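Long-time lurker, first post. I've been practising inverse folding by hand and with some scripts of my own, and I keep getting stuck on stretches where the structure tokens seem ambiguous. Below is the full token string for one chain I'm working on. Before anyone asks, I'm not after the true native sequence, just a reasonable design that respects the backbone. If someone could post their per-position residues I'd love to compare against what I wrote down in my notebook.
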């Protein structure tokens, strides 16, 4: 048999082989790809799904987000008729050719053959209902409802529950999925009369002499809860999996499959879909959930494609994220367990040194934007466990096509690393700023610290001699730390900030350095460190932030510098 004959005799399938966005980006696809669309709100994720369906139906149309799509198919019109005869109910209704009725479609054979033969150029019209399924929110929830009972050995299966009813292996498979997500079984009631409901709970065991038609077994089954009477989370979880795994559609669209689900279930759903999706179907998903995305990534599927969309005026700019990039991020334990992937769903990410920094700057941002008539900036603040990890976070986010800025304490100027690497990861050229950095650093290095070595030794020994407790007091530890800071010019510089830079050439160099760093997105805390914004409040880190956030963040005059800094940060 020739290749052409084999293609003609194969089960009929339709799939998208290319998508062109309005920015000119083209995505090449194969039949079994899983395409995950991510990006900020209103970037074009949901619109991509809707317009793709419209373009498949009528190739003459053009969307606002999608310029065009290319379609591919396999099988002949004869194999289409044979396949429909097997998969759907057949009735003649007074016509010379039959009408086929299946999952979500009713189509006359003559129309089906005509659309199939001309579909590649004119669009597949109503034939899309046979091969394409948009798993809407309503579909997910209603799939949990009981379906009409049929004669399983004689009639085509027209509802996903029919597959669970007919095939014990399918019921066991989906019950295992359900137990992983919710800790209980999913059971088909095969003897409920004219309907086939699903139940949830611990599956009744079959006692000796019983089978699934035994009255006692049925009573115990019916004492459990029906799935259709449960919350939206359970019903949606089952509905997504049933429609994705059971149906015979070759293209599936799902917008926000994580809807109604708690984070653990969203993550598990992503894993199951990416790992277990049956072959010979394409899946397009728009999501706004890091949890769902993490589950997808855990599957390590070679079929996965991630496209990040962001709006730029009237254009929807698309970046295809290489799976190797994702795996590189996933291999770093700190990045993997941080919220850095949430950056995919925001317009911009600002990386800070600590969680306290993130909390403070986020609160200040809210205080200066909460009364604006325009939509506040979609910015996510993240931290990565100190300045020595910032470069890794910058690299990861830039690989994901996420705009990024960095906020670093003044003492990041103390050493060439990590300053050099951070600047280069932001797209800067170290040689262009190296001379100014060296001038500033050397000027601070040459400043005399508050205490010389002999003075440090004397004051530390005084504290040690004054304490004889078995457990060394925390206050004594803090006093020693303050003394040690006074022994370093850079420790003092971190507390004071840019005012510690000597006047003259060093100050001029610092101003040039600051401008160049900011041009690439690296913002120095010129008051030294976070606590320098409000020096009237003691403590450090979380305690300091907790006290400051009790103030009037919008109007407190002592926070003027902080408000100004955040405005510059987001401009």
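-- Answer (accepted) --
I ran through it position by position. Result:
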């Amino acid at each position: 048999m020739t290749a052409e004959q084999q293609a003609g005799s194969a089960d009929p399938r339709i799939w998208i082989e290319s998508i062109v966005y309005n920015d000119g980006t083209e995505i090449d696809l194969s039949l079994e790809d899983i395409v995950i669309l991510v990006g900020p709100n209103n970037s074009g994720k949901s619109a991509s799904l809707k317009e793709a369906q419209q373009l498949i139906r009528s190739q003459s149309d053009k969307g606002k987000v999608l310029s065009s799509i290319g379609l591919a198919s396999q099988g002949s019109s004869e194999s289409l008729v044979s396949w429909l005869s097997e998969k759907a109910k057949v009735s003649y209704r007074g016509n010379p050719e039959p009408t086929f009725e299946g999952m979500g479609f009713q189509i006359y054979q003559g129309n089906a053959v005509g659309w199939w033969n001309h579909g590649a150029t004119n669009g597949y019209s109503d034939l899309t209902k046979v091969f394409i399924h948009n798993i809407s929110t309503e579909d997910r929830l209603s799939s949990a409802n009981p379906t009409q009972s049929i004669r399983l050995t004689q009639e085509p299966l027209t509802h996903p529950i029919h597959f669970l009813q007919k095939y014990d292996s399918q019921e066991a498979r989906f019950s295992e999925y359900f137990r992983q997500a919710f800790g209980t079984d999913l059971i088909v009631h095969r003897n409920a009369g004219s309907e086939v409901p699903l139940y949830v709970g611990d599956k009744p065991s079959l006692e000796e002499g019983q089978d699934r038609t035994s009255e006692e077994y049925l009573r115990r089954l019916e004492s459990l809860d029906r799935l259709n009477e449960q919350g939206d989370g359970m019903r949606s979880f089952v509905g997504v999996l049933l429609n994705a795994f059971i149906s015979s559609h070759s293209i599936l669209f799902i917008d926000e499959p994580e809807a109604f689900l708690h984070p653990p279930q969203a993550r598990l759903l992503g894993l199951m879909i990416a790992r277990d999706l049956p072959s010979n179907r394409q899946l397009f998903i728009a999501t706004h959930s890091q949890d769902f995305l993490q589950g997808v990534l855990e599957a390590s599927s070679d079929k996965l494609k991630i496209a990040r969309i962001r709006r730029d005026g009237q254009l929807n700019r698309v970046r295809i994220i290489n799976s190797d990039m994702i795996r590189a991020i996933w291999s770093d334990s700190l990045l993997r367990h941080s919220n850095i992937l949430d950056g995919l769903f925001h317009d911009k990410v600002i990386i800070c040194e600590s969680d306290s920094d993130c909390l403070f700057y986020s609160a200040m941002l809210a205080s200066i934007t909460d009364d604006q008539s325009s939509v506040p900036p979609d910015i996510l603040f993240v931290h990565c466990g100190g300045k020595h990890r910032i470069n890794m976070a910058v690299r990861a986010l830039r690989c994901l096509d996420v705009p990024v800025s960095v906020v670093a304490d003044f003492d990041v100027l103390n050493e060439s690393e990590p300053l050099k690497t951070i600047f280069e990861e932001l797209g800067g050229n170290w040689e262009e700023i190296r001379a100014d950095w060296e001038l500033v650093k050397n000027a601070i290095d040459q400043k005399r610290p508050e205490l010389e070595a002999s003075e440090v030794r004397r004051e530390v020994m005084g504290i040690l001699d004054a304490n004889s407790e078995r457990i060394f007091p925390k206050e004594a530890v803090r006093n020693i730390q303050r003394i040690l800071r006074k022994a370093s010019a850079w420790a003092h510089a971190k507390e004071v900030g840019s005012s510690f830079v000597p006047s003259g050439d060093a100050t001029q160099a610092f101003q040039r350095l600051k401008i160049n760093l900011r041009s690439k997105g690296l913002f120095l805390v010129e008051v030294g460190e976070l606590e320098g914004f409000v020096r009237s409040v003691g403590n450090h880190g979380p305690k300091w932030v907790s006290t400051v956030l009790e103030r009037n963040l919008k109007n407190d005059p002592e926070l003027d510098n902080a408000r100004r800094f955040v405005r510059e940060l987001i401009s």
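A couple of notes from the structure itself: Confidence is low (pLDDT under 50) at residues 1-9. The longest helix spans residues 168-182. Happy to go over any region you disagree with.
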